[in-house]
Amino acid sequence: MRLLSYLLIIAVIGFFTACSNKEEERMGVIDKSTVSKAIKLMKEKHKNAEDWRIEKGALQVASFWKEVDGSKKEYIQFCVDNFVSDSNALDLAFSRLTKYFESLNGHMTRIALDFSWFIHVDEGEATPVDLMFSGYDVSANISNDFFNNKIAFYTILNFPFFSLDEKNDLGKNWTRKQWAYARIGDYFTSRVPSDLLLKIGEVASKADNYISNYNIFVGFLVDDKGNTFFDKTKKLITHWNLRDEIKAQYANPGGLAGQKMIYEVMNRIITQTIPVNVINSNEYSWNPVANKIFKDGRESDFKAEPNTRYQYLLDNFKARSACDKFNPVYKTYIERQFDRDMEMPQKEVEQLFVKLVSSPTVRKVAALIKQRLGRDLQPFDIWYDGFKARSTISDVELSAITKAKYPDSKAFAADMPNILKKLGFDDVMANRLASLIEVDPSRGAGHAMGAQMKSEKARLRTRIGKDGMDYKGYNIAVHEFGHNVEQTIDLQDIDYYPMNGVPNTAFTEAMAFLFQKRDLDLLGIKNDDPMKEYLLALDNFWASYEIMGVSLVDMNVWKWLYENPNADAEQLKDAVIRISKEIWNKYYAPVFGVKDQPILAIYSHMIDYPLYLSAYPVGHVIELQLDRYMKGKNFATELTRSLLGGRLTPKFWMMNAVGSEVSVQATIDASEEALTFVK
Ligand SMILES: [Zn+2]
Questions:
Q1: How far is the CA of 329 from the centre of ligand 1 (A)?
Q2: 652 CB neighbour count, 10 Å cutoff
């Protein structure tokens, strides 16, 4: 399942900057000597102020200043007049900004909630005008306005930005208030012209559309003898459904041939040797191994897909890198994804992943899989799905229980205090938290939306059928409820508003998974399979091994793109294939005994959500660290304590939560432990 991302508007303000009239106008028109002059005058006026504050503020304001903002003289005057040196006055400025930003974010979120109501909530008919409102981004021009009216410059001048390195270094001596000051410094870190932002949206939605409509009719795949292996009606989206079909076939004793066939399809997609006629079409039968297509039993000529896949990736690169020069702080898309959004340097994430994929545990788990399969490993066994604990109760029985318990969304809402008490919250806290979460019937599978101001409530959207909530819906509802509890504690009980939230989306997902894992306990059902935990550890380890390799490919492709900005789609394709084989040969070939496989390049998110993939494995790593740490402790107490770390960087958040930084060690340890039990 795709990670749901609930970015705080506050964090997004910087993304939606625009300068309305003169889009092409350069930033940073203030030269060094003008900055020096401003600094000199500021120091003369503010004798008690710390030099670094004056210097950082003046420099950072200069880096965003455009001609339209005023002359050099006006820049100097702005800095001298608006710099707040006295610490009490700065505190006052902080509390005012905090109040205003809470109101802004809170109301923007409230409007977005109202405008998307009939699209998200299963209430009445969704009409064309509802779609128009839900597609409108009311906050799109705020950052633009705030540069124009100079609120952004005032904020930058007095609460300057600290880089991730600075936060991770200086942060160890910061008070909570200093952290909160630094978080305000993150509000305005870019000033990208609106036409460039529109372009990103346009390219992203085209890439998304390409992926969303890339289906393979697997029932029309044939081998050399004309045998088919799947149902004629089976239409699988690339790559998720194709991958899931490979997974599903492990339960089928004769599934190997079908798995091999789908694997060939994936290779054809990566190498773009796939016939265009078989994409999203069942007009032809296709032998993916020989790469021949047939109609009415006769072979036909075909054209291969003309590198379309890589053209979309390239378009994404071009649109995103075009914004680099309007980001004085995070200068590349790689930095924006890792340093800014994930708040973990790309190099560090890479090292984290390499540590796991090159660990000796991989070979041990692989040997166990080989033994369980009774055959040599195939490259697609990166998706081995055999470490699943069999539930002692069927889905049908579980659904009967959940449907009786939750006939409608009101019943779930009424039960929230009990759920929280079962998780270890005391009565007062359980009732209070539940009163701050509103449950609405969802049109989709479900989602959670946090409030951004204390006077608003978080929303839990859950899908309930006419005959009540089935088990799948319940399982998702518990996951979303985990998001809501995180959002609510992080907003309502946090010490400083700018610290509200978690370091990145991987953290809120980790929280939601910790809830989801306990769904049967919450129903009062004890899963009596003693192997459950060990199987889960191995399943998690093997899934991490796979997705971390995919993420390494994704990162290396983007590094290559930045080194080769003028490459065409053909060159990009060659590079992706080369990079994926390199990663394979380094970390997978020694385990699988097969070289030169490009399979790690199959992930669709590589094309439509560039550099997002790393969030998944980081989320699982964090989840496991938290889970192991919480074992034997009160879940609610530990959860609350961890959450009140708020918007520390991941490094400090984890230190506060579990006493160590983000690390794959817990994932490895859990597997090593499991290996002694699972045979
Ligand atoms: Zn989630």
A1: 29
A2: 20
CA of 617 to the centre of ligand 1 (A): 14
What is the pTM assigned to this prediction?
0.90
Does 239 sit behind a cis peptide bond, omega within 30 degrees of 0 on the bond before it?
yes
E-strand ranges in 243-385 read 285-287, 292-295, 298-300
> What spacing in Å lies between the alpha carbon of 472 and ligand 1's midpoint?
14
Q: Quote the ligand 1 centre to 5 CA distance (angstroms).
A: 8
pLDDT computed for residue 2 by the predictor: 31
Structure tokens at 462: 């859950």
pLDDT in tens, 208-229: 889 988 999 999 999 999 999 9
Q: Cα separation of 53 and 51, whole Å?
A: 5
- Residue 362 in contact with residue 675, Cβ under 8 Å? no
Q: What is the percentage of the chain residues whose pLDDT exceeds 70?
A: 96
The rounded Å distance from CA 592 to ligand 1 centre is: 33
CB count in 10 Å sphere of residue 373: 15
- Ligand 1 centre to CA of 502 (Å) is 13
Q: How far is the CA of 4 from the centre of ligand 1 (A)?
A: 5
Residue located via tokens 């998304």: 208
Give dist(CA 527, CA 93) in Å, integer. 54
| Segment 11-31 mean pLDDT | 56
pLDDT at 89 over 50: yes
Please give the distance, rounded to the nearest whole angstrom, from the Cα atom of residue 330 to the centre of ligand 1: 27
First to last CA, the chain: 29
Around ion ligand 1, residues with a beta carbon closer than 5 Å are: 4, 509, 512
Ligand 1 centroid distance, CA of 503 (Å): 15
Burial class (CB in 10 A: 0-12, 13-18, 19+), 2: exposed
CA-based torsion, 202, 204, 207, 212: positive or negative: negative
- Which alpha helices (DSSP H) does 457-564 contain, by range? 471-492, 505-516, 519-522, 532-563
Phi, psi for 298 (deg, rounded to 5): -110, 140
Distance of CA 266 to the CA centre of its chain: 24
Angle between helices 505-516 and 471-492 (to 10 degrees): 130
Q: Report the pLDDT averaged over residues 30-45.
A: 97
How far does residue 480's CA lie from ligand 1's centre (Å)?
6
CA of 459 to the centre of ligand 1 (A): 13
For residue 290 the two structure tokens come to 């020989």
Structure token digits, residue 13: 């303000």
pLDDT by residue (tens digit) across 235-281? 998 888 999 999 999 988 889 999 999 999 999 999 999 999 999 99
